[in-house]
Prior knowledge:
With 125 residues, the chain is mainly β.
Amino acid sequence: xxxxxxxxxxxxxxxxxxxxxxxxxxxxxxxxxxxxxxxxxxxxxxxxxxxxxxxxxxxxxxxxxxxxxxxxxxxxxxxxxxxxxxxxxxxxxxxxxxxxxxxxxxxxxxxxxxxxxxxxxxxxx
Length: 125
């Protein structure tokens, strides 16, 4: 059974930092690309970042470039999203998702096969 479990969400002040974790079980990160998505109330789910498997490429949506960093610890089968200089508009439920192989359409949620349950991030001004 494939499972993705997010953690690390919470509340932060604008300008602060949070680190999200996505622990993946049932598959190996060597074979899957892991994406981070977010969904704010009343808005569509948005691709935030992706770490592809082979070749290894890191993608970011424009609004988080320079502020968010995606990394992985393959020994722990865990992908992280370090979020710095947070802004109120970063407030959303954050999800991680797994896509077998590699796809150029990393921000397309339909490309992903498995999803976590989400973790809430709230940034206050």
